């Protein structure tokens, strides 16, 4: 039987606020455990939450970016469950009256086709702390630095049919939230986490199969693998005569396996009710309009602008607008070096290769856009060739200094002195008389060209790559033809 | 000194009749010698009180100090006090020393008042008799075999026995007004949002409100001046200017329209209390007020609605007491569930457990609509009853409690009878209105409370109306006979 996969996503996005959603503690990542948890975060008796307006603003901006309804009245609820990293014994979240209502996101797939994915809603909530199960001699450690970090949870409709669509959707969300500047989108630090709801059904049928939820996937790659794994598991199970249990599953990325975390029967009764410590949020239309008017450029608009103002291909523009940091880097680079095409090539070529190899985000790139622009400018003004530039780039990456410093220090400056090149050509020709004769005797144009290039290569080699290649071409041609 | 009003004490301090240190020492001595009879304090902070008094004396010497500067006050042990154990009357918090002050406590410190210590209360403010405290029951200074009321039984007994000039309390369903009535005090529950709840350990967040308990409307006004005000740390606190409540105490109440809800004078009301309330109303008539019978038709639904909403909120508010970060933790927990269940089973008393169970049940899947949601609808109806009543009258009056102080142990095994204690006070919390109880008589040597209910943020008017009555009567000046006897000793 042919099966169809149905996927819905719940995406937790950490908002890039300075302080927590209901307290003044810092949200900075990586601090020593429990150094960023105040009395409110620790749920000390008598402490009360106060909503961080910036978190609210960011949630509304997200809603506006996906053209969703912004609910002018929204309510925080308490979701009750006991866990040591949940200090209050309930999570403050939104259930029936979320801040962002239904919206729509369009994603582009690799084959160029477009797919629309409906957003059911997005709501504001607080993150929990972290339980640490190692290094405590059989006990668990609790780090509450993350407790109270603002999140929006974006809930999609079950509109995706393949893992490719799910990944494209996830990437699109990443691109939107980073372009808006409402999240750093840094998945290695948990700034975006995905819960994937998956079910399968015989192709052509309408009724949804029983779904499972695979929780807390924190990279696109893991998400793709987890989906593939779960779809196979479900199909195998059904085809073997079994049935799917509604359950929550955990994916182990190290072993590429998933296991059941809890079944529907074991699921908590969260006893949601409106949080009496926080009044319903009431938002003026003018407040929303002001945010709408000042909304940063969205990925779609940015892409279109990149195509029109920088004369980039749609493919390049798409790559460069995948996240805000890349787009910003590109614009800074292009402006500083004055050549959008070269800027795009370098960014998507050498730079992103190095970033990938070293697993570094572009925000933490060791070479600034201005520094890279200097290198590109040296290619443009013929100080160095493109090939030498790669060598310089590597030195820059290793922190050996600016492009000019490295070119100077390593004597990589291109030789454009025609006298010097002529001398080198003479030398190569006299040392390689056999190749010269071979070239001169060749009558097939194509082969002749190849033999000519071999001689160019010898000259370049002799110059240690520093000779201006077009000058070498010119002079060599002249010499051979004379 | 202990027979004087706060205004008199403030004057005495300024005239140099005594220093704050002397005054504080006097009260500390009384507490030490007499509180063994009442058990009204959980913690007495003598050393700190004397330090605060010394500072207050320095301020007083410079002049131009707030009214309460140098005045000793007792705080209900529900307000967090930095460096001083704040137990909320529970074993759960017996070891809890807050690293912060409640906003109300900060206000008193800024005013220069002296904190004598932390008073007894029903565990987590759940009770109407102060019998559920981990620190033992509190006795009513008027009748030692009777309860002082609750949950602010400690503050009520302390002020009635003249162990403190005044005290702070909190009121979720009557916890200021009912003990004030039973102990012959003036107790005010302000409008919800008038006094900050930050640092006040939550029972039912949408109902809890701190307020003053004193010997007169005038004293209560002076305390409210300090307690009221906007607090950016409490999202439910309302940003509205605070008037000087003592300035309007003597305003004329000529033409005041008093509403008497017929539902407050029906079955179950003690006849002496009914008579006392009627007598008080007559006094108001002589002051130029007019009387109108009104109806608050949903009154009988108040208790059932309250006993869904308050426990529901409490069930979540008390989840933080899990033995993980602070407070009581059971010995040798075997695993996480054992840690939770034994810490909570051993740390909470029966009434608290009962309310957590009721609340969790009312919120659980399948019951939410039938209980919690319905109770919220009733709450709205009750509020609407008051809103329409206040279109016809300026203040609503009636008894604070259906009966005077009952015997210790009399109702402690019958929660439903105990819950009925708050039949006249609970609606006021559900509606978020201000309510005030003043002494209006004695029956068999036990005080009777008259309740005044005002419109939103009309605390000044309530205090004015109460004060005018206290100019015409001396019920509020009466003191427990037992206290008289003991007074001669100290």
Shape designation of chain B = globular
Strand residues, percent of chain A: 15-25%
- Name the biggest interface: A-B, 28 and 44 residues
Number of strand elements of chain B: 11
Radius of gyration of chain B: 21 Å
Structure description:
- The complex is a heterodimer of chains A (482) and B (490).
- Chain A has helices at 53-65, 163-180, 220-239, 285-293, 299-310, 314-320, 324-337, 340-358, 369-380, 386-397, 403-410, 418-431, 433-441, 445-462, 469-481, and strands at 3-14, 73-74, 77-80, 90-93, 103-108, 114-126, 130-132, 141-143, 150-156, 192-202, 212-217, 247-252, 257-263, 273-274, 281-282.
- Chain A has 482 residues and is of the alpha+beta class.
- Chain A is elongated and about 95 Å long.
- The N and C termini of chain A lie far apart (75 Å).
- Chain B is α/β, with parallel strands linked by helices.
- Chain B has one domain: Amidase signature (AS) enzymes.
- Chain B is built from 16 helices and 11 strands.
- Chain B has an 8-stranded mixed β-sheet, with helices on both faces. Chain B has a 3-stranded mixed β-sheet with strand order 1-3-2, with helices on both faces.
- In chain B, helix 4 (103-110) links the parallel strand 2 and strand 3 (114-119).
- In chain B, helix 2 runs antiparallel to helix 3, helix 7 (217-227) packs antiparallel against helix 15 (459-472) and helix 9 packs across helix 12 (369-389).
- Chain B is globular, with a radius of gyration of 21 Å.
- The mean pLDDT of chain B is 96.
- Classes of the chains: A alpha+beta (482), B alpha/beta (490).
- Chain A binds chain B through residues 39, 42-51, 78, 80, 82, 84, 87-90, 142, 269, 271-273, 276-279, and chain B through 79-80, 86, 88, 93, 96, 98-100, 102, 197-202, 204-206, 232-236, 312-313, 315-316, 318-322, 324-326, 336, 340, 360, 363-365, 368, 372.
